[in-house]
Specification:
Strand content: 5-15%
Bound molecules: zinc ion
Radius of gyration: 29 Å
Number of strands: 4
Shape: rod-shaped
Length: 91
């Protein structure tokens, strides 16, 4: 039983080997390809949004990590450069 996919352009079912999968994960049949159809705008926007979100999250994670490292370095250097606190006087 051959796999069939729904064309994103015209919506008909086509065999997997008779269609092209674009970068957005859509399947485009041969006749749609010949008319110059490559992708749907909706899918492209969704794809770009996912990418932007992924990079934004990655950037935020990097900033948080850099901040945590800077804080750790600051605490370590602060402790190394200042003498230990004198013991509390017992009464
Ligand atoms: Zn089609």
């Amino acid at each position: 039983m051959p796999l069939s996919k729904q064309c994103a352009g015209c919506g008909i079912e086509v065999a997997r080997q008779d269609c092209h999968r674009n970068r957005y994960g859509e399947y485009i049949c041969r006749s749609c390809q010949q008319t110059g159809f490559r992708y749907t705008k909706q899918k492209k926007r969704q794809y770009l949004l996912v990418r932007i979100t992924r990079y934004a999250l990655l950037g935020l994670a990097f900033i948080a990590l850099a901040g945590a490292l800077a804080l750790a370095a600051y605490v370590l250097f602060d402790r190394a450069s200042s003498p230990p606190a004198p013991p509390a006087a017992a009464e």
